[in-house]
Amino acid sequence: MSSTTKDSIRDQNDDVYASVDLAASLPKSEFPEPERNPRNVFNAIRDELMLDGNSRQNLATFCQTWVDDEIRELMDLSIDKNMIDKDEYPQTAEIEARCVRMLADLWHSPSPETTLGCSTIGSSEAAMLGGLALKWQWRKKRAAQGLPADKPNLVCGPVQICWHKFARYFDVELREIPMEGDRLIMSAEEVVKRVDENTIGVVPTLGVTFTCQYEPVKEVSDALDRVQKETGLDIPIHVDGASGGFLAPFCAPDLAWDFSLPRVKSVNASGHKFGLAPLGAGWVVWREASDLPEELIFNVNYLGGNMPTFALNFSRPGGQIVAQYYNFLRLGKEGYAKIHNACYATAQYLAEEISRLGPFEILFDGDSSKGIPALAWKVKEGQNTGGYTLYDLADKLRSRGWQVPAYSLPAHREDLVIQRILVRHGVSYDLATLLIDDIKRALEHFKQHPIVAPLSEQEASGFNHG
Ligand SMILES: *Cc1c(COP(=O)(O)O)cnc(C)c1O
């Protein structure tokens, strides 16, 4: 045996943390030259990931951070399958089609068996597809009337960034209704002021990102009925149900927001938010097949069959779709309602406790008929906190691992800073009591160690002379 072979065999027996591989910093920029031991590299990467913090304590995200063992197994079984290869993996394709039909049924499509829809990587892609369908439908209508179609616009409330992307990438003017005073979401009245013959659609959000509230889809739909009566303009609605699409059907079944309103032509939702699928699952469904313009569907024959596809991506993992189907079968409406209602109860508990602390005013309290299982608050008008801000509170909670974001609102309420907690599957009531203890400890800390504003130059120089 050569001495180098002997060395490398001895290396294999080394403890991971005594190995040559981990005796130096691993490459960060240059493409690595040598091979390394998989076990050593795995451990180094796993350890680095610790620095991300604990996702379960991330109360900023709407996305799933808790996964059933069964879902892990199904993801593992699907890791080698590309969902776009519909001919090679016909059962994964069939499962996707079943999910679309089930969602069309859940959202009261008049023809859930035949309508169209697809999985996406998330609500952003789903929103792009929904927006594109609106644009194409509008353009066809304009062409049929011999009218120009070069200035499309879309009317919405304070939307998630994906709609800003849609507008810019696909050349559509975004008429975003600004917040005004205490009105932090769209109103039917403000929508009507902004629609015209170039409006491709109106997008209400079911669960606004900033304040977690549902926008009034029914009122907007009724108002657009009146617009049609008066002007002849027939303006469709796409609902951004990223969160609410998987909440309202189970926890607010009387809320009219979906295809039960004929004007709602399409809905997007994030499977990986309250759909409880692992990251990488979104859905878009059209009310009826005729609401998705044929021109947007590609028929691909080089994968073996002749498969219609409508998507921005091509290759994509199939596991999320399989896991989503597992959730639908495993939970049913009953299970989703139980899980989400537990989250609403925890959100309401947190809202009560936080309002009881004194300095804060609750803006949204986790009412299941008005929004998502979450809460948002601000510092009371005129409240003297003794120096700390919601940003300081967020920082202090971070030292215990909690991520509770503080942020300012968009136009025209940039002046208002709020803080928000998302309550998801796995954020238990008990965990919430521990968070409240930490918030109390943080406020006590600020009392004992007030955050003093830095002295102005004048004050500082006076201080020096004094
Ligand atoms: C999260 C969210 C999106 C974007 O969804 P992804 O699934 O993260 O792509 C869009 N709209 C709303 C209202 C959201 O909450």
TrEMBL record:
Ranges annotated as spanning the membrane: none
Catalytic activity: L-glutamate + H(+) = 4-aminobutanoate + CO2
Domain of life: Bacteria
The protein's Enzyme Commission number: 4.1.1.15
Enzyme class, first EC level, given as a word: lyase
GO molecular function terms attached to this record: glutamate decarboxylase activity
InterPro entries: Glutamate_decarboxylase, PyrdxlP-dep_de-COase, PyrdxlP-dep_Trfase, PyrdxlP-dep_Trfase_major, Pyridoxal-P_BS
PANTHER family: GLUTAMATE DECARBOXYLASE (PTHR43321)
Family, similarity comment: Belongs to the group II decarboxylase family.
Function: Converts glutamate to gamma-aminobutyrate (GABA), consuming one intracellular proton in the reaction. The gad system helps to maintain a near-neutral intracellular pH when cells are exposed to extremely acidic conditions. The ability to survive transit through the acidic conditions of the stomach is essential for successful colonization of the mammalian host by commensal and pathogenic bacteria.
Protein name: Glutamate decarboxylase
